[in-house]
Amino acid sequence: MSLLGKPTIVSADADFNRYILQSEGKMFENSCPTSIAEILGRWSMLALEGEIHREMRSIAVNFMGNVKLRNYFLPDIEQQALKILHSWKDGSTFSAHEEGKKFAFNLMVKHLMSMDPGMPETVKLRKEYITFMKGMASIPLNLPYTAYRKALQSRSAILKIMGKRLDERVQKIREGSHELEEDDLLASVSTQSNLTRDQILDLILSLLFAGHETSSAAISLAIYFLESSPKALQQLREEHVNIVKMKGESGLTWEDYKQMEFTHCVINETLRLGNIVKFLHRKVIKDVQYKGYDIPCGWELVPIISAAHLDPTIYDDPQTYNPWRWQTISTATSKNNNLMSFSGGPRLCPGAELAKLEMAVFLHHLVQKFNWELAEHDYPVSFPFLGFPKNLPIKVHAIKKLT
């Protein structure tokens, strides 16, 4: 078929989609829409290919690797989650999706640039980021007063704030301060990489975008699905109450996280049915033969990665939210091969494990502190990023004490 003026193959075949992801850089390459690349920047990981993409991805992987998750992210995720949940009042109604966004944003700017919630710079950055995101899903018309033009203007404002933080790091280095006080990504790339100023800023922005959108959407989806599955919510709550009984009220440890077996089932099922990213854009870079089909070089590919997640030949009753489907190790391993929520291959999202950790920690405290219900009927949609038409309004009810 021809899509947007280009010969395009739309694939809902799980095996072929996995082949596309695993053959990145050999048979296929990323084909990010021009409008998104312009907003995120020419050095964004979403737009890059080849060696520079591998270098930037390596920086991101090290930034969010297991050692960092265990020693730096975990305690701060818990702190940020508790700040959000402590602001919820018994019987109040608010947007769960906005609260999830606030949580994810605060966490990312803290670890990217050591910016704390409430700082004037942080407040301004979040305001500009909201405008920036509205332009990501708009018609790419660079005309006055359009969402796209406003997004480009907000990008400039965001880079100005980030650039100021970067300049502060560079100044410290010039003054001979080899030990920077901040333990964030900006400090790391300032001292340990050969990236240019523009490359650093686009990297920080792309990680803020990816970390914010993925985690906030995943947490919102978990709240949405659990609200309609009391049995799953009850079992999840029991698991986390038991963890607290065994360890006391001290902060969560990596060992606690690894013990959250049913929580991981909930996370997998939320990602499977929620489908945060439903499709990708790829381009054929050499003639491909696959199962008797010839695919010419230069053609576009749109792998529908959500197709496998909803395939009844892979998942029984795929439209039903069923965390228990992940409890049998043999079947869970097989199903995990078809779970492509974070893409796959060389472009596997470097923040995949961070997003899962955020979900687990947030749910750990949420299910012990509150019951909730939808204040209005709502549902998840993707256009092109996952959201809720009414921003997922919920009414919360505080739990007095769990025993």
From TrEMBL:
Gene Ontology molecular function: any one: oxidoreductase activity, acting on paired donors, with incorporation or reduction of molecular oxygen
Membrane topology value: Single-pass membrane protein
Keyword Membrane belongs to the record: yes
Keywords from the named record: Heme, Iron, Lipid biosynthesis, Lipid metabolism, Membrane, Metal-binding, Monooxygenase, Oxidoreductase, Steroid biosynthesis, Transmembrane, Transmembrane helix
Cofactor(s) of this protein: heme
One BP annotation, GO: brassinosteroid biosynthetic process
InterPro entries attached to this UniProt entry: Cyt_P450, Cyt_P450_CS, Cyt_P450_E_grp-I, Cyt_P450_sf
Residues the record lists as binding heme: 349
UniProt keyword annotation of Transmembrane helix present: yes
Recorded GO CC terms: membrane
SUPFAM superfamilies according to UniProt: Cytochrome P450 (SSF48264)
Compartment(s): Membrane
PROSITE patterns found in the cross-reference section: CYTOCHROME_P450 (PS00086)
Protein family per UniProt: Belongs to the cytochrome P450 family.
PANTHER family: CYTOCHROME P450 26 (PTHR24286), STEROID (22S)-HYDROXYLASE (PTHR24286:SF194)
Name of the molecule in the record: Cytochrome P450
Organism whose genome encodes this protein: Dioscorea zingiberensis
